[in-house]
């Protein structure tokens, strides 16, 4: 199975046209940037391997994507988390529910006798891995050099599309978590001598932290995408009325976006466009993650009401 060549749509936002690369449409079960990051595992053989091990939050897009990967590979998935909130356990939905339906084993450290205060990463290193020979281990959010394989293919697709459409100046915009996707796209452009610029914003931990994450993946500053910084500090996973407003406006375009990264991404893009004098074409990368809306949207409607929701997909 090969994952590639998602379409590009055009939507009107901020009184201009913006291209949207639809990586949310990559594959019905395996889409968005996690599928790009995990493509290496899908497209290579791992003789003898029968288990995938990961860790993170029980609501993470990466949990669902790893469960889809494991299913496609015929592997089992063990995913370690610190804790599962009781309402999620009682009523599994979103990424967590879909991962369970794919057969994932989500193991909560607070239910184990031998966790002894370790965090999930340390627990896997010290307790799990010594007994497991034939496993593939993926760091949190897929932040690893294996991600370069699939993400550089995405970059190549963007170059091809820009060539076909004779877009010689282009800005690719995407919101970052670990920054892995943005960094490897930009690294590809720099190494191939392509003039497309990559702009991003930090959804997790702020701009200085994102730069640190970039440095861990490449110590060549030329590989680091430009970071757009908003004056207001937003905390990952928290609800903000301006996020919800942005999401509702975006929904009018007919494309459903997700609620953790995209509202900040579009706010940062708006900020950039307000500051920038040049009128360069923008390609916004839709990185999937829509299953998370099953849990995020009820949180928003409980807090701010739903009278204005036009597209609840
Ligand atoms: C994981 C994720 C991101 C962040 O990707 P990084 O490569 O960690 O920066 C952004 N958007 C969505 C929808 C995601 O699932």
Automatic annotation (TrEMBL):
UniProt entry keywords in alphabetical sequence: Hydrolase, Pyridoxal phosphate
Sites of N6-(pyridoxal phosphate)lysine modification: 34
Key word Hydrolase present: yes
Domain Tryptophan synthase beta chain-like PALP, chain residue ranges per copy: 14-227
EC number: 3.5.99.7
Entry's Gene Ontology molecular function annotations: 1-aminocyclopropane-1-carboxylate deaminase activity; D-cysteine desulfhydrase activity
Cofactor(s) demanded: pyridoxal 5'-phosphate
UniProt cross-references to InterPro entries, sorted A to Z: ACCD_DCysDesulf, TrpB-like_PALP, TrpB-like_PALP_sf
Record flagged with keyword Protein biosynthesis: no
Class of the enzyme per the UniProt entry, highest EC level: hydrolase
Domain of life: Bacteria
Similarity remark: Belongs to the ACC deaminase/D-cysteine desulfhydrase family.
Protein known as: 1-aminocyclopropane-1-carboxylate deaminase
UniProt source species: Shewanella psychrophila
């Amino acid at each position: 199975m090969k994952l590639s060549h998602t379409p590009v749509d055009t939507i009107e936002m901020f009184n201009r046209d913006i291209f949207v690369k639809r990586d949310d449409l990559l594959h019905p079960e395996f889409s968005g940037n996690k599928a790009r990051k995990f493509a290496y595992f899908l497209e290579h053989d791992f003789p003898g391997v029968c288990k995938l091990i990961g860790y993170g939050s029980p609501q993470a897009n990466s949990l669902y994507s790893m469960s889809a990967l494991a299913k496609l590979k015929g592997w089992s998935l063990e995913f370690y988390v610190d804790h599962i909130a009781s309402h999620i356990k009682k009523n599994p939905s979103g990424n967590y529910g879909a991962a369970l339906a794919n057969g994932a084993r989500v193991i909560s450290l607070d239910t184990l006798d031998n966790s002894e205060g370790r965090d999930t990463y340390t627990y896997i290193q010290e307790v799990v891995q010594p007994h497991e020979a034939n496993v593939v281990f993926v760091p949190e959010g897929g932040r690893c050099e294996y991600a370069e394989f699939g993400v550089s293919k995405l970059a190549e697709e963007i170059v091809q599309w820009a060539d076909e459409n004779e877009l010689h100046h282009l800005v690719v915009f995407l919101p970052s978590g670990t920054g892995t996707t943005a960094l490897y796209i930009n690294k590809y452009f720099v190494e191939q001598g392509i003039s497309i610029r990559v702009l991003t914003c930090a959804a997790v931990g702020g701009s200085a932290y994102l730069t640190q994450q970039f440095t861990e993946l490449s110590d060549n500053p030329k590989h680091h995408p430009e970071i757009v910084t908003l004056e207001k500090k937003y905390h990952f996973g928290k609800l903000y009325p301006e996020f919800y407003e942005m999401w509702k406006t975006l929904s009018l375009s007919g494309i459903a976006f997700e609620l953790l990264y995209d509202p900040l991404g579009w706010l940062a893009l708006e900020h950039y466009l307000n500051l920038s004098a040049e009128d360069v074409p923008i390609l916004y990368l839709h990185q999937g993650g829509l299953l998370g809306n099953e849990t995020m949207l009820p949180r928003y409607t409980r807090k701010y009401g739903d009278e204005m929701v036009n597209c609840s997909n």
